[in-house]
Specification:
With about 350 residues, the protein is of the alpha+beta class. It is about 15% helix and about 30% strand. The structure holds zinc ion (2 copies).
Length: about 350
């Protein structure tokens, strides 16, 4: 059995055959901090877009989900997960997902690594899942400062806010390169995509709008505890546009299949913001990535399988769809599966 974080394998028991994918956003703001819509409006927006769960994560503020009226008239498969964006000094922000109560951001004057460690420890004290947000925001945090943090196993690979430089900036590598750096150093990190939405009235790329980044979590039950447990196991993937039908890992293979119907529908969304490049090749590409960020295998198509030889430090899969944009520009949209670790027990 390939072993993600905490040694548990991906769910393989009989109940797993009844598991389904749940779509969720782990990072959203409301009027309780610097979002521009009340919680009830934000919740309704996500509900109407077909999401199954969201966390309202205001800066150093907790909204009790019990106080927010859920739409829920037509669909029962929608929940709120209690959350907070623990917002410390040096623009280091950490989502506390499914926390039991308010998490204090701690001393904001400490060094980067100490601020982050405080966040992680405090979120864990409140029984939550810590997720390092937008590592390239503002002065950013380097992989070297993330790697010294203990008990942190999740980061935001994609964040929909226009000011976070997911694809890198001067002095900061793309977040995906930082992720591979951490994995190559032997740290077990899983990656989420989130919206970090603040603006719910006007929609254009320069606004922090919802609908740009999300996770798809495979679980038999939709509850805050079961969603977070599935994420800790690695039973999820991050997306900013691609929907997968199959993500399967066993001793011999890592297999990924795109849900073409759902992806085509998803790609019609006016909210998506992909990676804009000047060079590209239109269509789907599935890449299996290993130590050092090296591409181990790539397939142009909608399904692919990688034969594990057992010596790989880790293997993860990046699925991309490239489409032409105006002025000879290309836009890349992705799904990123979590790494598996064949070489580690
Ligand atoms: Zn933030
Ligand atoms: Zn935020």
């Amino acid at each position: 059995m390939l072993s993600p974080i905490n040694g548990q394998g991906r769910t393989k028991n009989k109940a797993a055959s009844f598991a389904r994918w749940y779509k969720g956003n782990t990072h959203t703001h409301t009027l309780a901090s610097d979002g521009n819509a009340p919680a009830s409006y934000v919740v309704k927006w996500y509900y109407n877009q077909g999401y199954n769960f969201i966390a309202l994560t205001d800066h150093n503020k907790i909204i009790n989900p019990d106080t927010v009226k859920l739409p829920g008239k037509l669909r029962k498969d929608f929940i709120l997960i209690r959350g907070e964006e623990v917002s410390g000094g040096k623009s280091i922000h950490t989502t506390g997902l499914n926390v039991t109560g308010y998490v204090d951001p701690g001393d904001k004057t400490l060094a980067n690594a100490a601020i982050l460690q405080n966040h992680v420890d405090s979120v864990l004290t409140h029984s939550g899942l810590p997720i390092l947000n937008h590592p390239n925001f503002s002065k950013g945090i380097h992989a070297s400062n993330i790697s010294t943090t203990s008990k942190l196993h999740m980061l935001e690979l994609f964040n929909g806010h226009p000011g976070v430089y997911n694809w890198g900036k001067e002095g900061h590598a793309p977040v995906e390169v930082k992720w591979d750096s951490l994995l190559t150093q032997g740290h077990r990190f899983f990656a989420v995509a989130s919206d970090d939405a603040h603006h719910y009235d006007q929609f254009y790329p320069e606004k922090a709008n919802p609908g740009r980044g999300w996770v798809m979590v495979k679980s038999t039950v939709l509850s805050p505890d079961s969603i977070v447990a599935a994420m800790v196991r690695g039973d999820f993937y991050a997306s900013n546009g691609i929907i997968l039908k199959t993500v399967e890992a066993n001793q011999n293979n890592l297999t990924v299949e795109i849900d073409l119907v759902a992806t085509k529908e998803q790609l019609k969304s006016p909210y998506l913001t992909g990676n804009i490049t000047t060079e590209g090749k239109s269509g789907f590409l599935i890449e299996f990535i290993g130590s050092g960020g090296k591409v181990l295998k790539k397939t142009e198509g909608t399904s692919a399988s990688y034969a594990v030889n057992g010596s790989e430090q880790y293997i993860r899969c990046r699925v991309s769809y490239c489409r032409k944009r105006a002025e000879n520009k290309f836009e890349y949209l992705y799904a990123w599966t979590q790494p598996v670790f064949p070489g580690q027990k």
